[in-house]
Amino acid sequence: LILYCLNGPNLNLLGTREPEIYGKETLQDIEKIASDKASELNAKLTFRQSNHEGELVDWIQEARNKASALILNAAAYTHTSIAIHDALKTLEIPIIELHLSNPHSRESFRANSYVAPCANGVIAGFGSAGYSLSVEAAVSLVNKRSI
Ligand code: DQA
Fold first, then answer.
1. Which CATH superfamily hosts domain 2-142?
2. What is the ipTM of this complex?
3. Would you say the CB of residue 85 lies under 6 angstroms from ligand 1?
4. SS3 (DSSP) at 17
5. Where are the domains of the chain?
């Protein structure tokens, strides 16, 4: 079982980027947390980050025939990208929208998500723990277990 976990712009700076909002762990730390949880559940995680919208679209397209589920923290593109929305619409696998922070408790411009209408569920506000929670949720959805 292969899970894709894709991360959008500025998440490469985790650890030093607004740590009071996003936590002190680096993206590498988070990759380890998520991969460990995946191995525990007999899944394999493909974990990537890009600052470029088109690259994220390419990877979402790639997930169509390579992944059993997609976990997506689209970062700021969550709130702006119709291209990512359209790419997600082409997927038939489960999609989990993920955020470290809770966008709904922040600025009003974070209230809209172009990812949410395409997602089976949303995990937000749990910091780095959200990555292992979303791996669990993804595996559950693939196995059609209720969560
Ligand atoms: C984020 C929330 C977004 O609003 C923001 O633009 C990000 C990170 C999160 O993980 O909390 O870059 O997706």
1. Dehydroquinase, class II (3.40.50.9100)
2. 0.99
3. no
4. coil
5. 2-142
